[in-house]
Design goal:
Elements: E1 13-19, E2 22-28, H1 30-35, H2 38-47, H3 51-64
Antiparallel strand pairs: 1-2
Length: about 70
């Protein structure tokens, strides 16, 4: 699989995120993951205190990725 952002490099960073009940698989190369702070976004998603906050964190992540 290729990175969803640069579409050039292999996607070594891969996670599924759920917005409401809809899963979205995010596949990024390591450079794009670092550039977009993907790990930081995942930490904020996991640390969200409730469903609404989790949805907001996922929406922000997907928006930052242009998805």
């Amino acid at each position: 699989m290729l990175c969803k952002l640069c579409k050039k490099k292999h996607a070594d960073w891969e996670h599924a995120v759920f917005y409401d009940t809809t899963p979205t698989r995010v596949r990024l190369c390591l450079d794009c993951a670092k550039d977009k702070d993907a790990d930081g976004h995942m930490e904020r998603i996991h640390a969200a205190e409730d469903h609404e906050a989790k949805n907001a964190a996922v929406a922000k992540f997907l928006s930052d990725l242009g998805m």
